[in-house]
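Dear Dr. H.,

I hope your travels went smoothly. While you were away I took the liberty of generating a structure for the chain from your last submission, since the lab meeting agenda had it listed for discussion. I wanted you to have the full record in hand beforehand rather than looking at slides cold. The sequence, exactly as received, is reproduced here:
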Amino acid sequence: QTQNIMNDSRNSTNDIAELKKIIDEQTNEFKKRDENIMLQLLMLVRSNSKICEAVQNIDKKIGYMMKADTRTRALAFPSPILPTPFLNLLPTQSIENVTVVENMLSNIEDGFANKEQLKSYILMKVGRTMSFSASIRNTIACCFDKNVLKLYSYKGKTKKKI
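The corresponding predicted structure, in token form, is as follows:
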């Protein structure tokens, strides 16, 4: 009877050892699986935080652009481009240039087109100024150099005889 009890206790000890071994193996497997899951969660959290930062930066940039867009809409004038016939002539540097410009504007074939181009250029360049006198001053400055302007009177005649 004692041998049976001894055998039974050995068998139960072996069974307990086997159960403990199985539990340890499963615990190790669960730990590995849990570690992998946690690692993936950490990587997802990091990538999500980077995505959130990028979205916030884009939102800030869009906000700046919208503010700048409202400011530029208030000043929405196209930049003036000097018409090609007048490229090297305006503002006039000499009386000869004034004569050339006058001939271009009074030409029968292209005179009307040249007048319209020059008018639209001056309007875009000077039309933004607030006061009437400032507009006149800026228009004259667009067309004449100060040294050439000194040679003319208000009536449009030259002060010195040629």
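Two observations you may find useful: The chain has a mean pLDDT of 79. Residues 47 and 153 are 75 Å apart (CA to CA).

With kind regards,
E. W.
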